[in-house]
Amino acid sequence: MEDVKYIDIKEDFQTVNEPLCIFNGEVSIKPFLKWVGGKGQLLSELARYVPKKFNKYIEPFVGGGAFFFYLNPNKAVISDSNEELIATYKAVRDNVEEIIKILMMYKNEEDFFYKIRSIDPSILSGSERAARLIYLNKTCFNGLYRVNKKGQFNVPWGKKKSDFLNAEQLRDSSDFLKNVEIVHADYAETLRNYAEKGDFIFLDPPYYPVGKHSDFKRYTKEFFYHEDHIILKKEFERLVKMGCHVVLTNSDHPFILELFKDFQIKIIETKRLISSNPETRTGKDIIVVG
């Protein structure tokens, strides 16, 4: 592939009422959800590898969408295998005022939390479903999204009295999501259906575990196994050969470093925000560029 020119992006977030892409005004917002593996710490590093020109942006492991909201690209496809997450994105895009009205009736109290958590989201309307996830995300322990093998949200109440409704942020997020293709699918299906030459693709899979307690990849009832990382690497190679600009993040596990040894790799010191012990909240992330 010919040499790629990269664009510099501001490191500070700005909140706006109307969406403007980086190529017009370099305007970004913070994600409205806190998500395990969120890329807030890596944004300034990831920004170094944004091509100056690309067809569209694709993020098939979107999670909280920190990089998407940071870039605010002209044309984008975001997807995830987490059905609740994708339903929430669609509802925020299409019915944000309804979500805000519902959240205004909620309370950050223990009994109320467990009442909302016990509701089967499949019986709710799109707006109710989104409000439920946003509320649980903001009031549960450490903002951790985790489900059991039945796909049921099982994180306890966080006991903090912080606000869970930021109406302005939700409205800004809705603006940023306008005209964005939002897809419920696994990453491979999304890439098969949407990836084209010249696209900029950001791959942020569940990280390869680096310790015996590294089980926070369970953001759906399925797991991402050793073999899945090998398959993902083959997909990474396919996209590069197709002519896509591809950036991938993962842990600095020796297996991952060996797997992507033929590509440019940068190792970055980061903090982990899940552990209850602050002394264990350290680690290293890698950025792979193809």
Report on the structure:
This protein has a seven-stranded mixed sheet with strand order 3-2-1-4-5-7-6, with helices on both faces. It is an alpha/beta fold. It folds into two domains: 152 residues, Vaccinia Virus protein VP39 (Rossmann fold), CATH 3.40.50; 89 residues, Orthogonal Bundle (Adenine-specific Methyltransferase, domain 2), CATH 1.10.1020.10. It is built from nine helices and seven strands; from the N terminus they run αβαβααααβαβαβαββ. Strand 1, helix 2 and strand 2 form a beta-alpha-beta unit. The protein is globular and about 55 Å long. About 9% of the residues have low confidence. The termini are close together.
Kindly report the CATH topology of the largest domain: Rossmann fold
Percent in helix? 25-40%
Instruction: Characterize the main sheet.
Output: 7 strands, mixed
- Please state the second-level CATH architecture of the largest domain: 3-Layer(aba) Sandwich
Descriptive terms for the model:
7-stranded mixed sheet, Rossmann fold, 9 helices, 290 residues, Adenine-specific Methyltransferase, domain 2, alpha/beta, globular
Layout of strands and helices, then pairs:
Layout: H1 43-46, E1 57-59, H2 66-71, E2 76-80, H3 83-103, H4 110-117, H5 126-139, H6 167-177, E3 181-184, H7 187-194, E4 200-203, H8 226-242, E5 245-251, H9 254-259, E6 264-271, E7 282-289
Parallel strand pairs: 1-2, 1-4, 2-3, 4-5
Antiparallel strand pairs: 5-7, 6-7
Helix pairs in contact: 3-5, 3-6
